[in-house]
Amino acid sequence: MAPMIVAQELYREFRTPKRHPGFLGSIRTLFTREYNVVRAVDHVSFSIERGELVGYIGPNGAGKSTTIKMLTGVLVPTSGYVETGGLVPHKHRQELACRIGAVFGQRSQLWWDLPLIESFRILKEVYRVPDETYERNMRTFNELVGLDELLNTPVRQLSLGQRMRGEMAAALLHDPEIVFLDEPLIGLDVVAKEHMRRFIAEINRERGVTVILASNDMSDVEWLCKRIIIIDKGRILYDGTIEELKRRHAPYRTLVVHFGEDYPEIRAEGAELVRRDGTRAWFRFDRTVNPQRLIADLSERYLITDLSLAEPTLEEVIRGIYEATPTSPRARSSRGGEGKGEP
């Protein structure tokens, strides 16, 4: 079966006239062809299979949103090839629109002054959703995120968390095969975020919807995704599982042990004592070491009252990757020059 999304050497640059200061500079700007060239996506290649839930992550200006816009047909690539659902997005925008859904955290597809239910009814007609499908989906959305209590409220009166529930339902109303989520959980409180996470996981698991999640919140990505693609300055740094990423870049785990006595000397086979505070000690060990074996070794020689295993968070791992990556300017301006970044 062919991948749901294919990107090959995908490249996108933005050109803006180079402006010169002062009155004479303005005249010069009008009559010369000097440009600032910003390379937003720099020869990106990947494929996503049907039913995958993939995190697409990177710092602000890394190229996430530009990539998604090319995958959905909003932007035309400067060069390279992209295929979404078997279609070239910018050539088949109308046909593709019926097969995809999108949620952008900062932009709404709901009608601001109308009750939420009216937005759904309008979208039902726009996408020509059959009555049976519409009713089935509305029942499902109510079960998952409790829409009934919001339907008669104007969108402008909804809280951010309530509106995002409506946005997600609107994006899925027509049973899309692929859903693009660009910062869909931004600004949500803990309760609202939990509802939305479960909603996203449910539609991916039960409906087999392919989901691409672009986010700066690593806790959301770690909760939802097994595979992630990391992009920075328009280039892909990593494409693989979170577990493999941690194995490569965070090879150690930490066992925190509370001892029943203040032993003068403590040690553990296969682990390094890195810190001690009274009866509590921190042991660092390689990810290949079985923690159960380590715990059994300590229990044979010492009285243990409590212990915990500390895993590095995805945010800590990715921060280390960025810090280890040589920095370079995000854009380089010159006549016909090239730069990196996303405007």
How would you describe what is shown here?
- The chain has 343 residues and is an alpha/beta fold.
- The chain has a domain of 59 residues.
- It is built from eleven helices and 13 strands.
- The chain has a six-stranded mixed β-sheet, with helices on both faces. Strands 11-12-10-13 form a four-stranded antiparallel β-sheet, with helices on one face. The chain has a three-stranded antiparallel β-sheet with strand order 2-1-4, covered by helices on one side.
- Helix 9 packs across helix 11.
- The protein is globular.
Task: Please bin the fraction of helical residues.
Answer: 25-40%
Overall number of strands: 13
Number of helices: 11
Uncertain segments are: 327-343
Q: How far do the termini sit from each other?
A: 36 Å
Q: How would you describe the oligomerization state of the chains in this entry?
A: single chain
Shape: globular
Strand order of the largest sheet: 5-6-7-3-8-9
Strand fraction band? 25-35%
Radius of gyration: 25 Å
Instruction: Output mean pLDDT.
Output: 87
What structural class do you assign from the helix and strand content? alpha/beta
SSE ordering: EHEEHEHEHHHEHEHEEHEEEHEH
Keywords:
34% helix, single chain, alpha/beta, 343 residues
Topology:
Blueprint lengths: L4 E13 L4 H10 L3 E14 L4 E5 L6 H9 L6 E6 L8 H5 L2 E5 L11 H11 L4 H15 L14 H13 L5 E5 L7 H18 L2 E5 L3 H7 L2 E6 L2 E7 H8 L2 E8 L12 E6 L2 E7 L4 H11 L2 E7 L3 H11 L19
Parallel strand pairs: 3-7, 3-8, 5-6, 6-7
Antiparallel strand pairs: 1-2, 1-4, 8-9, 10-12, 10-13, 11-12
Helix pairs in contact: 6-7, 9-11
